[in-house]
Known about the structure:
Radius of gyration of chain A: 13 Å
Oligomer: heterodimer
Distance between the termini of chain A: 36 Å
Largest sheet of chain B: 6 strands, mixed
Order of helices and strands of chain A: EEEEEEEEEEE
Number of helices of chain B: 0
Amino acid sequence: DGGITQSPKYLFRKEGQNVTLSCEQNLNHDAMYWYRQDPGQGLRLIYYSQIVNDFQKGDIAEGYSVSREKKESFPLTVTSAQKNPTAFYLCASSIGQVGEQFFGPGTRLTVL
Amino acid sequence: DQQVKQNSPSLSVQEGRISILNCDYTNSMFDYFLWYKKYPAEGPTFLISISSIKDKNEDGRFTVFLNKSAKHLSLHIVPSQPGDSAVYFCAASDGTGGFKTIFGAGTRLFVKA
């Protein structure tokens, strides 16, 4: 049963703490993405990776970091430098450059 | 600067009638357009797409129309069903420019029984 999993579904952290969001896919997709969704806004691209050991900044990369050590995994770390980290975070993957992306269920991060 | 705009935050339609969701874009380099559907607390799921070489693509109850000269696309759902109630995102990408897909802010569709 192929798909993308994100964990946890809800996450609470204190201000000033780093937190890592998990994203795993078993679709054998080369490309993976992290988006952030805020109320009334579309999905904004944080980082994307075209291939293992390579990743590129998206439109709002400041305060975030990623790694892509395995094809299946693309974890996102929200650092203390991110000024407004409370949001809904979505991970996605795709076969290639153009075409549909497959999304995980999302993680809602709340920083207290 | 929003390159993909969905100007209607919400739309309410009676069951059985047609739903028309609109999307405008500003970047003439976009050549591939997608619609995604999203239920609350879930990730978006792909619905239908269209390449810039076409002006219409149909899949069951869903049809996407593309007007390149107006930089406008629309999603038609007919007949609308209560299960279609969700947020619909329009998205666009430049096939020559890498992996970036730009999403609109979404339109929340309510289909009343």
